[in-house]
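Why do we bother with holo predictions? Because pocket geometry can differ from the apo form. Keep that in mind while you read this record for adenosine monophosphate.
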Amino acid sequence: MSNQSKQENSLTMNIVTDIEAWQVIRNNLGNKTIGFVPTMGNLHEGHLQLCQRAKRENEVAIISIFINPTQFNEQQDFATYPRTIEQDAKLLSDHQIDYLFAPEVNQMYPDQYEIQVTETMISRELEGAHRPGHFNGMLTVVLKLLNLIKATRAYFGEKDYQQWLLVKKMVTALFISTDIIACETVRASDQLAFSSRNQRLNPTQRETAAYFPKILKQTETIEKIIATLQSHGFKVDYIAEKWGRRLGAVWLDDVRLIDNISTTPQLTD
Ligand code: AMP
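The structure, written out:
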């Protein structure tokens, strides 16, 4: 899709794919408050709630879609990741988002990924232990995006809780002035967290997948939770309690699902 293709597609939103063109636009936005939601596209209700919040709390709302090759630890996962940019652009336009930033890989990595951001503690556990290199790729691209968008606030989902912790830690460590805001996980009516990877579940798997959040919420030991998940056909990467959350990652055949819930009583809901 070309730059500024708003008129061509009768969208009420600007689509920017060129980084230099974006930088000119960004300069012209001056001191307006900017809400930013980084995504990999294939937008669902979870993404849209982040977008709506970005729009509500800021003068300008900007969403990025960038399927970041460096955060996929498996080539097959990158190859099969759903790419639905036209449909996503329409959705964002319908939600009155101001800008869709969708850069090309070669423009985002002029350094060929020779410059990387590494965190040496949290990034080694759970998701990091099971997906080597994933958090390096994620932090590197988020830093690039935060530097380009220069947002007032950036919105991240609690569904990827470890990611949110790492992004928050990075902006503090590197003195980045964007506020990093966590948004509650958005779930389908059967409790399964919305995820782009849910699209790869067949109808039977989709039914089974709904047991994952329900089992995760049970007041049981971790060992019992793992055993119950296995008895429903899940292969378990990990179930762990950390950071006031119970977090888990499971497989249904070749589809990997993650989720987490709070383990501390909420004062408000
Ligand atoms: P992704 O496109 O998967 O990289 O996700 C982009 C952002 O949307 C991340 O901050 C995710 O945590 C967030 N997100 C994805 N799914 C959900 C969901 N079900 N509820 C809330 N946020 C989500």
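The domain at 6-183 is CATH 3.40.50.620 (Rossmann fold).
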